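Write out the 3D structure for:
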Amino acid sequence: MKTRQINLIVAGALAVFGLCACDDETTAASESPAMSVLESGKKLGDCTKNNVGEMVYVSDFSAVFYCADGKWQMLNGKDGADGKDGADGKNGADGKNGTDGKNGTDGKNGTDGKDGENGADGQGGSSGRDTVVVNQKDTVVVRDTVVVVNRDTVVIKETSGSGSSESSGSGTSLTGKTNWVYLNPAISYGEIADERDGQVYKTVKIGDQVWMAENLNFEYKVVDESTGKEKSIGNYCNKDGCLKFGRYYSWAAAMDSAGVYSESGKGCGYGLTCTPVYPVRGICPEGWHLPDSTEWEALYKAVGSSPYAMQAIEFEKWLYATNAYGFSALPAGNCDFRSSCSSSFENVGSYANFWSSSDLGGSTFAYYWNMGATYASIERYYDFRGAKYDGFAVRCLKDSE
């Protein structure tokens, strides 16, 4: 990961369409006037042969779109390599000596040689989605690259298979955990260490709330009365080993139904009715709690009621994600604890589901925060999800001071 200052330019149509599979040739980006700006993607007109290559910045997506193949497409790609420095200019010739005679005057010094010109900017790479060019002072996101241009210094985050990245300047160091690659490197994150197992989580302030910026990954254990030993219950890892999506929890585990850490959610679970005491600490670290439905709605209002502003980038089905506020929701999907979640994972890559502490008032369903590619809302029962035996992610919210 490296941070560097770049000139913001708009690529010509040929630079954008250099995304075709055409040998290993490269196409240079050329300067052009600033692109037009629209408040809403709904105002984009038709993409026709008359405006092929036109680029428009759309504010509600915080992204740049270009016209190609009969439709508007979001700009994707990485910067081409930097151009080489120009050669140094030659030294100026020495001045001639003055002629002899009556106290002849000294010859003047020769003028200095001109500085060599800077090398041309590097051309765009040759393979798919190589060119990233912007000129708006806002956060612009493209897959594989986050370009933040709302400050004097442009921060670029390039991801790789290593699962870690790093930012500098006023951003946050993102080295250390696999899922930190999905954070926004321009955001100044805080940290919390869970004293129960020593795990460190990034935190982010959005509006008046402070949230975990990643899914909880704490193993919930209760004492087995038959053996007197602790056993893990109501939580499960996907094949990622909990490193990417964190753990999936039943509502009972999320609420700490066994009362291991507090009494506020004790006795809450599938097939049970209960009266939670709010705020419900649940499975969260001390000083944090499981958010209720109104706190989820307050978060959504604080991000401008935009699901894209909450979504982490890098996911194929979340085409318009910007992660502008650093919440970094991941499409972890869900599972079914009636089958121990071992063979029931679904919607991974498409949906994010987070438990709330708000009971629906019966024994079967509870409220949860549901997010798809183009929407987000608090739900109580949707598309056969929301039963207390479902396995959803948990995001903890810091207690009010």
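The chain is about 5% helix and 20% strand.
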